[in-house]
Amino acid sequence: MQFIPTNIRGPLFMVVSTGFYLVNDTMMKLATEGLPSYEVLFLRGVAASLWGMPLLLLLGYGKQVPLLLDKRVLRRNLLELAAILCYVVALANMQIADATALGQITPLLMLVGSSILFGERIGGARMALIGLGFIGALMVAQPTMQGISVYALLALGNAALSAARDLAGRKVGADVPGMIVAMSAVRGGAGGRRRCASGFRAMGDTRGPSPGADRRRRFLPDLRPFLHLHGLSRRADERGGAILL
């Protein structure tokens, strides 16, 4: 990767991770047609763990494995787990375009959060654009006099929790590699299945596998958190250790 200029290396990884988001979410949408959402999440976490741990060791992070249990990492990944739980249920019951569009307000919420929590200056032009972004989210959610769809609320909850996750990620020390944070996240996704299964059933998500369901979709490796965190860590290096989006 040394042939890629350092000032574009981080953004490049984040753009590539966005492509994997698209592929992975499409596969998850197909998988949730015949499997309960919590089972899809659990199996995705298991698959990512099976190939992610060897990759982590191959990259030389074996001595830093105890950092998987770092308090700041766990706090960040607890928000990650809550966000993905909301998103998986919303994705199973909404058009993928609508769920994705509502998720796009995450960076807008993060800008507002950074301004409130860290005193970062946004400026009038950015605030106006943020307002337009929220108006666009309302147009997608389409609230009526009877209220708003619970699944649209879950998609919005995913956006809010994702913003909180990224803000919490700024507290993770610069000495913690992005791969460690990513592995902690995918293992949390696998481990959270049993705790959240009853909650999903209470929401009516009790579907079982259909006869024609393609079981291979469940084991598709999830590259998103690895590339996203790798991109964030690259950008943190370029900015002196602070993770900024």
Written account of the structure:
It is a single chain. The chain is mainly α and 245 residues long. It has one domain (6-238). The chain contains 10 helices and no strands. It has helices spanning 6-31, 37-58, 71-93, 96-103, 106-118, 124-141, 150-169, 178-191, 193-202, 224-238. Helix 3 runs antiparallel to helix 7 (150-169). The two termini are 21 Å apart.
Features:
245 residues; mainly alpha; globular
Blueprint (SSEs and pairs):
Layout: H1 6-31, H2 37-58, H3 71-93, H4 96-103, H5 106-118, H6 124-141, H7 150-169, H8 178-191, H9 193-202, H10 224-238
Shape: globular
Residue ranges: pLDDT <50 for 5 or more in a row? 202-224, 226-237, 239-245
Largest sheet: none
Look at the helices and sheets and give the structural class.
Answer: mainly alpha
Number of strands: 0
Query: For the terminal residues, how far apart are their CA atoms?
Result: 21 Å
- Number of structural domains: 1
Approximately how much beta-strand content do the residues carry?
under 5%
Helix content: 55-70%
Average pLDDT number? 76
Number of helices: 10
Radius of gyration: 18 Å
- Subunit arrangement of the protein: single chain
